[in-house]
Amino acid sequence: MYKYDSHNELVSQFEKESDIEARKAESKRIILKYSKHLPIIAECLPGDKNMQTVTPNTQYKKRFLVCHDLTLAQFQMILRKRIGISSSDAITIFCKNKDMPTTSDNMLSLYDRYVSDDGFLYIFYGSEAVFGTSL
Which of 75, 78, 121, 81 shows the shortest CA–CA distance to 102? Predict the structure, then answer.
């Protein structure tokens, strides 16, 4: 159902679309230019049919540039606005290795814990219905 790499981590569509050297160069350029911000890629969990019905064929930007001190709860609100999900629809956030961080975590601490080898923090979101399913 979900795509994993050899380390049993979720694989982002962004990672599939470009090679690691290009992603490394891009994240490095972003970090040098915006030193107080973090490069983040946020994508819907692959195969989450509930979220796909909430946001059918929504073309949105997956890339985010967020401040270090932004909390995950604040990022969730930004994400909701960008993908067009109302505050009444439940969404769950996962990091690349399938961990579910707390909403009080700031983005810098998440970045430090879960940054990928290419310099991006990959975040996946899904509907609450993903609870009880096998990631």
Answer: 75
77-116 tens-digit pLDDT = 999 888 888 878 888 898 877 789 999 999 999 999 999 9
Give the chain's domain count.
Answer: 1
pTM of the predicted model as reported, rounded to 2 decimal places: 0.81
- DSSP E strand boundaries for the chain: 37-44, 63-67, 91-95, 121-127
Do the beta carbons of residue 22 and residue 103 sit within 8 Å? no
Residue type, 63: R
Share of the chain above pLDDT 70, in %: 78
Structural domain range at position 63:
13-130
**50 is a domain residue:** yes
Torsion angles phi and psi, residue 110, rounded to 5: -65, -45
Question: For strand 91-95 and strand 37-44, is the pairing parallel, antiparallel, or unpaired?
Answer: unpaired
What CATH number should be reported for the domain holding residue 35? Answer: 3.10.20.90
